[in-house]
């Protein structure tokens, strides 16, 4: 039986080990045993907390999504205008917690799994709706005639640039991606 109070420590340790293993060998080659070895625990601990490898990846993605949410709330709190909010949304989606090499590889494994795993697909729908809704609200505040279209356009650009960067050997060029997204947002605003 695990020691009382160890669960949050073990969960964090296992989530970090999962990202490290995915970063090193990819999700397909990552095993419960390799995660357990990297974390310095038994495979039984993973089964106890997460059930299996898919449960552990789901928990890892929930952690990345929670970090994204917390960062966004923080940045939106200091955003005075709708334009500031749009920039905060862009910056958050390209923040270090979401674009570092291990996070990027974990996101790619998650997106791949979302095509076949209902729990992953549900998390992806929530993430997609959250991004779209936040952008739409800000574009609506700016008086755009079609804030839904503007939000869909900028969301697609954010996701596309993120995906291209994550798949490139150099990784995500955060400054360039943020610049392109901010320019696109400005064009959408000017077009009204």
TrEMBL record:
It comes from the Bacteria. One of its GO terms (molecular function) is transcription cis-regulatory region binding. Coiled coil: none annotated. The keyword Transcription regulation applies. Residues 8-68 form the HTH tetR-type domain. Keywords: DNA-binding, Repressor, Transcription, Transcription regulation. Pathway: Amine and polyamine biosynthesis; betaine biosynthesis via choline pathway [regulation]. The keyword Acetylation does not apply. GO terms for biological process: glycine betaine biosynthetic process from choline; negative regulation of DNA-templated transcription. Residues 31-50 bind DNA. InterPro entries: BetI_C, Homeodomain-like_sf, HTH-type_TetR-like_transc_reg, HTH_TetR, Tet_transcr_reg_TetR-rel_C_sf, Tscrpt_rep_BetI. NCBIfam families: betaine_BetI, PRK00767.1. Repressor involved in the biosynthesis of the osmoprotectant glycine betaine. It represses transcription of the choline transporter BetT and the genes of BetAB involved in the synthesis of glycine betaine. Repressor involved in choline regulation of the bet genes. This is HTH-type transcriptional regulator BetI. It comes from Saccharospirillum salsuginis. The lineage of its organism: Bacteria, Pseudomonadati, Pseudomonadota, Gammaproteobacteria, Oceanospirillales. The gene is betI.
């Amino acid at each position: 039986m695990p020691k009382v109070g160890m669960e949050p420590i073990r969960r964090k340790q296992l989530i970090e080990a999962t990202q490290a293993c995915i970063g090193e060998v990819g999700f397909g080659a990552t095993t419960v045993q390799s995660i357990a070895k990297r974390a310095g625990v038994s495979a039984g601990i993973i089964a106890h907390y997460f059930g299996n490898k898919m449960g552990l990846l789901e928990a890892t993605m929930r952690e990345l999504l929670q970090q994204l949410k917390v960062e966004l709330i923080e940045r939106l709190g200091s955003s005075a205008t709708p334009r500031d909010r749009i920039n905060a949304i862009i910056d958050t989606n390209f923040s270090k917690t979401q674009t570092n090499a291990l996070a990027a590889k974990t996101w790619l494994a998650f997106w791949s799994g979302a095509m076949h795993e209902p729990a992953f697909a549900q998390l992806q729908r929530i993430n997609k709706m959250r991004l779209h809704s936040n952008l739409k609200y800000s574009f609506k505040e700016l008086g755009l005639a079609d804030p839904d279209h503007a939000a869909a356009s900028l969301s697609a650009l954010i996701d596309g640039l993120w995906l291209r960067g994550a798949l490139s050997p150099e990784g995500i060029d955060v400054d360039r991606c943020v610049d392109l997204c901010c320019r696109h947002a400005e064009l959408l605003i000017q077009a009204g």
